[in-house]
Write a structure and sequence with these properties.
The protein is built from eight helices and 15 strands. By secondary structure, it is an alpha+beta fold. A hairpin with a 7-residue loop joins strand 9 and strand 10. This is YNL165W-like protein. It comes from Saccharomyces cerevisiae x Saccharomyces kudriavzevii (strain VIN7) (Yeast).
């Protein structure tokens, strides 16, 4: 009898192994996190498929172009990219070609805060002791990209009209030999006989609130001003009782995932910009919260942790002790692509000529969509950081230094 039982047990074990084959670590698609998050697969992190031979085997089965829309998704052992597309999980995230790190910096006794186009540019700014007339006009390193100044934030809480909440100014290098400064610009510094630094109002942000039953729909209208061209309006929408904010860039629905609701007294120190699937609900498409919830219930969707991350806002490098009268208040990590390069990033009256001293400076290399997303992130930082300052030990003591009387940048 013992012999019979052992034979039956071994037969059942072989049957189970046949139905559920084991996968070795080398046989599964390898993944990596391009933006440096923990990669644990939750809603605050996104894992991108690494372009290895294993992934290519999954992506190239059948039609080579059929599964391109969902290339930037996490692969599992039970489903391929084609399976995700056939199930309706189509994501049109662009193929990113580079990454950019943009420090958000406050200067003591200077109103507002600044965004630099790169880490290297900020380090040159410190090396030059905040003197803008010492920068190299050929590279533009050491020059801030944006200067954000908040307006009427308290008033906007009680107003339903189009209330201006922030103005963002942009710094540009102008070579007088081949171009004119932007309209209504301010001369900041003259580097040499031909090249000067100007600052002009690049973006005006208006806030509007609409009541819907027990919640309020909040729309921020980002108005971008361009020389000799009509203004560009880009909306961002959220609800006062809900987390997250949605927007649309180049026809793609995006979500700032991790932002706190207007009613929350606490801010956040980490926000991811996700590229939504085409079938996902969005505040940009559904006009009321009831319509949004109904749409979510009627269609199957993937967890947000499986969506591509375009950019990430964090305060992991925030400084407490000022360094050369500056404080790093946050960092904005952003991926960039050449897919949307339509020439719309130009804000001056004419393109740089080939003989210009500033034809390859770093300010002009920031793409249009990167500028739009940076302006959105600067507004979100202002909202979230104001909440955090109420609950930090050093926030109250340095509030005057960060937002004191306006001083000279240099």
């Amino acid at each position: 009898m013992d012999r019979v039982r052992s034979l039956i047990g071994s037969h059942r074990g072989r049957a189970r192994n046949h139905r559920h084959p084991s996968y070795s670590s080398s046989g599964t698609p390898s993944t990596m996190n391009l933006l440096g998050t923990d990669g644990d697969g939750d809603d605050q992190s996104t894992i991108f498929a690494q372009e290895t031979g294993h992934v290519g085997t999954f992506a190239n089965e059948g039609d080579d172009s059929a599964d391109a829309a969902t290339l930037n998704t996490t692969l599992s052992e039970g489903s391929t990219i084609g399976d995700l597309q056939r199930q309706g999980f189509v994501n049109r995230a662009p193929r990113f070609t580079s990454e950019r790190s943009m420090p958000f910096i406050s200067i003591l006794l200077q109103r507002g805060f600044f965004a630099f186009p790169s880490e290297a540019s900020y380090q040159i700014f410190l090396h030059n002791k905040r003197k803008l007339d010492k920068i190299d006009p050929k590279t533009g390193l050491g020059l801030p990209l944006f200067h954000a100044i908040s307006l009427n934030l308290v008033k906007s809480l009680f107003s339903s009209q189009n209330t201006p909440v922030m103005r963002i100014h942009k710094f540009v290098l102008i070579d007088s030999q081949c171009e004119k400064p932007p309209l209504n610009s301010e001369l900041i510094s003259q580097i040499n006989e031909n090249v000067s630094i100007y600052k002009f109002e690049f973006c005006t942000i208006l806030k509007k609130m609409e009541s819907h039953n027990f919640s309020s729909r909040i729309e921020h209208d980002f108005i971008f001003h361009r020389s000799n061209e009509p203004d560009v309006h880009v909306p961002m929408i959220n609800y006062n009782q809900r987390k997250n904010a949605d927007t649309t860039v180049h026809g793609l629905n995006l979500r700032w995932y991790g932002t706190t609701s207007l009613a929350s007294p606490f801010g956040t120190n980490s926000v991811n910009l996700l590229v939504l699937d085409d079938t996902m609900a969005s505040y940009m498409d559904q006009q009321t919260i009831e319509e949004f919830d109904s749409y979510c219930r009627s269609r199957p969707t993937r967890p947000l942790g499986y969506l591509p991350v375009w950019a990430r806002y964090t305060d992991d490098k925030v400084s407490v002790i000022p360094k050369k009268r500056t404080l790093r208040v946050a960092t904005f990590y952003m991926q960039e692509t050449d897919s949307f390069d339509d020439g719309s990033s130009s804000t001056t009256s004419a393109p740089h000529a080939s003989y210009s001293e500033i034809s390859s400076n770093i300010i002009d290399k920031v793409s249009w969509d990167s500028q739009v997303l940076t302006c959105m992130c600067m507004l979100l930082h202002e909202y979230e950081s104001r909440k955090e300052k109420r609950h930090t030990v050093w926030g109250g003591s340095t509030a005057y230094m960060l937002n004191g009387p306006a001083g000279l940048l240099m």
